[in-house]
Design brief:
By secondary structure, this protein is mainly alpha-helical. The chain has one domain (8-480). 71% of the residues lie in helices and 1% in strands. It contains 21 helices and two strands. The chain has helices spanning 12-29, 33-40, 42-56, 73-95, 104-123, 127-144, 152-183, 188-191, 202-219, 228-234, 237-243, 246-259, 267-287, 293-312, 317-344, 359-362, 364-378, 384-396, 402-427, 446-464, 467-480, and strands spanning 62-64, 69-71. It has a two-stranded antiparallel sheet. Helix 13 (267-287) runs antiparallel to helix 14 (293-312). The longest helix has 32 residues, at 152-183. It is globular and about 65 Å long.
Amino acid sequence: MDRLNLQPGHLWPEIIFLALVLLLFLASMVKSKKTAEALLKLCPLAALAAAFGAALTFYLKSELFFGTYRVDGLSQFFKILVCLGYLVTWFNSLTQKTVSETQKPDYYLFLTLSAFGLILLSSAAELVTIYLAMELASYSLYILIPARSRSKAAAEAGLKYIIFGAAATALALYGLSLIVASQNVTFVKALAGLDWSISGNPLAATGLCLFMGGMFFKLALFPFHFWCPDVYQGAGNETAAYVATLPKLGAVIVLIRLATLLSPETEISTILACLAAASITYGNLCALAQKDLKRMLGFSSVAHAGYILVGLVPGTAEGLAAAAFYAMAYILMNLLCFWVICRISADGRNLTYEDLNGLSARSPLLALTLAIAAFSLVGLPPTVGFIGKLWLITSAWDRGFDWLVIVVCVNTAIAIFYYLSLFRHCYTEETIPVGGAQSLALDTGAISQAGALLLGLLVVVLGVLPGPVWNVVLTASKSILP
């Protein structure tokens, strides 16, 4: 029992989301519509309570369940982000009509179950536990993605995600078996300091690369990205907003913990650097040719997965903190983009660039916040995207990966062309396409305006005053290094 070290006070986010899962399971079974609606309204309250619980336990450090579960500053930081993304997704779903009323209890149940898996993944400190938490978060997405009513594209997207997800799962499991065979232990803490070089322990190095491949699938890193643009395009807007953000957080926290096993001198670090460069370049070049906004954001996420990997390559506390900070920046930027998309697309249709024409006249606040998101995605000051990229390239500079910094800078220039098209269509294009989204009434209610303003302020304020958050993630990153 001493090794179990069960401390409920350290597990408030987990307890709250587990209770919410049970209540939503009840809501999916009851026949009373009023009872179901009342239970569904508990979702945002539970998310806020879980985020508050994670904040209260931010500076605690403990290992629970025989060392398989670790509560520390880094895990709580990611749990707060998961709660934020879940809350935004819930509000997005209120404005979309892609999920029928009869399916909503089931939709929220699986959405919550996926978020619960990501919360577990944030604290998982053992490879089998990581795998189980990852699958818990993933299985729900297999149901959420094709939930778009009467859409063949959603069914196709769901099928692709299942097929590629199964392949990634097999890859991760095979890698796990090689690690166990070569190192005889699965605890991340115990794996630190062991030999992970290809020349010294090729079996362990191969296993670690394959296990990371399962995380690369969630992160949509090239060449594990094939599902990403099609899933974004086929899924409902609110579901795409979730898939584009939260599952990537789970992959990032796992990769950060695994990166503590490596040093810049190992061959795996060089492999990661090459994958980062390829993903950044491929994602940006493909995004240039897109007209569908969600498909563009899909290829954009491939590029941003490469940016996050830049921080993991050096294996230093600064690099890990930069990756964590940029993951937060990426989540905020994309949540803001999808928030505006959901407010423009009242009937749940996919938007193109032309659907943004004249948005500045129809809703100045939505146009402004979308422009802020675009500037941040490019990496222009004074946004959080700029300071995030600055810390990424600073962490990789003079660590033997100066060429990777050059790749990041060149691709940032390339990304200007398609990100600033969002701004151009909102503010300078006046031609209204026949039958476009302009024919629909914008959602400009109080919640819509408040959400856009809050997310937009977060993107700007964290770019101007990033110090407090940076200090927190830097301290947390130092605490997990061996």
